[in-house]
Each structure stands twice: as structure tokens, then as C-alpha cells.
Amino acid sequence: MSGAELRTALKVHRAMRDLTQADLAALAGLTRKSINAIETGKMVPSVVLALKLAKVLQVPVESLFSLVEP
Amino acid sequence: MTQPEAHRTEFFLRYMKRLASICLAGLVPALCYGVLTAWDREGQHERLQLGILLLSPIILTLGLAWVLFSRRGVSITNDDPALQAVAKDEFRRLNAMRAFRVAFLIVMVVQLPLAWLLGLRPSPDSLAHMGTFTWFIGAIAFLSAFLFFDRD
């Protein structure tokens, strides 16, 4: 499993709900920078944060984040 | 959290960044003053030392006044959801951890040149100077690294 990268569909799901980064950050109780960092792959979110984002966007967490083998 | 509170989150982020910048701007002249005091024992640069000594409190006073003025009456309470969001934000915590690692590494790396430089002009205060320099360098490195990682 080493070397596997996290792929995120956060931006897609956010756009589908017509939410800005600031909107999503406000709904999930974090900052816009965090949302931007997750979307651009600068940060790997914790399990708690991933579940929180999935809950806010009302999608399974697996559809937001997946592992990509190199 | 509502949309105005999202703007408050941005406001708190900017507010804390300004505070960190002011602290950094106050620490740098204080370090320069320490360096001058440690090396200039004959008092050749007395005027410069005095100038730098006055610079740090002036920067801190004016800077803090500017930061407080920039609040424009916005109240800050501990139970504010926007403040809680900023305090618990994972990206900021990650940046703080990265900045701490950078600062720790810098503090470790500067020990040898610092000991060598202070050893060139040994005095009874050398140990105190080394400790003070280490503290200042660590604080400056941490704040600089944090502001760098947390930039937009």
C-alpha cells in the first residue's frame, strides 16, 4: 500500500451542490484554506474531517476520497 | 455556521496572521540588539544599539495598535463558532507542526556556529547569550515558517 496517493472528488461534489469553498468550510466548521488544501492535495484530511465533509455533502466518504495506486 | 460567520473565519485568520507578523517584526530588532550587545563590548556602536533597542517596542506598540484598530469594533469571544473553526482547523495545525519541525531543525543547526562565534569572544555572559539567541532564533524561525506555510 506504500506510495498510494489520495484522490479527492471534493471539488466535484462541492460544485454539484453549487457551494463555494467558503460555504463548505462554514458548513463543516473549518477554514476555506483547509478546503483549498484538501482539494489541491496539499493536505490529507483526518478520518474525522473526511467523515464530516461526507456528512455535510451527504455522500459516502468513499465517493469523496479514494486511493490511487502508483 | 452561516455565511457571515464564514467571513468572520477569514477575519480571524487575517487577524492572527497580523498578530504573528507584528510579533515577528518585534523579535527581529530584539535579536539584532542582542547580537550587537554580545559582540560590541567596547560600545563602538552605542547609538545604533540604542536605536535598535527603541525600535522593538515602537514596532510592537504601533503594530498592536494597528491590529486592534483593524478589528473595527468586532468582538472576540471564546465561544465564537468562527474562532473555534480557526482554532481547530487541521490545515493550520498541520502548518504549525511543520513550522515547529523547521524551527527545531534550525535551532539544532545554529548551535554549533553560535557556540563557535561566542567562543571567539568568551565572556561570563556567553552562556546566557547563547541561551537567549537560541530562544530568539527559535521563535523567529517558528513564526517565519508558520507565516510561510500558512500563506495564501
Describe it:
The complex is a heterodimer of chains A (70) and B (152). Chain A is mainly α and 70 residues long. Chain A has a single domain (5-56), classed as lambda repressor-like DNA-binding domains (434 Repressor (Amino-terminal Domain), Orthogonal Bundle). Chain A is built from 5 helices and 2 strands. Chain A has a two-stranded antiparallel sheet with strand order 1-2. Chain B has 2 domains: 1-86; 89-152, no CATH class. The chains are: A mainly alpha (70), B mainly alpha (152). The interface between A and B is medium-sized, with 17 and 21 residues.
Oligomer: heterodimer
**Unreliably modeled segments of chain A:** none
Q: Identify the CATH architecture of chain A.
A: Orthogonal Bundle
DSSP helix fraction of chain A: 40-55%
Class per helix and strand makeup of chain B: mainly alpha
Secondary-structure content class of chain A: mainly alpha
Number of helices of chain A: 5
The count of DSSP E runs of length 2 or more, i.e. the number of strands of chain B, is 0
Please state roughly what percent of the residues of chain B sit in beta strands, choosing from under 5%, 5-15%, 15-25%, 25-35%, 35-45% or over 45%.
under 5%
Question: What is the first-to-last residue Cα distance of chain A?
Answer: 10 Å
Query: Which two protein chains have the largest interface (Cβ within 8 Å of the partner's Cβ), and how many residues from each?
Result: A-B, 17 and 21 residues
Our count of domains of chain B comes out at 2
Average pLDDT level of chain A: 90
Largest sheet properties of chain B: none
Shape of chain A: globular
Q: What is the gyration radius of chain B calculated from CA atoms? A: 19 Å
Report the CATH topology name of chain A. Answer: 434 Repressor (Amino-terminal Domain)
What's the end-to-end separation of chain B, in Å? 23 Å
How many domains of chain A?
1
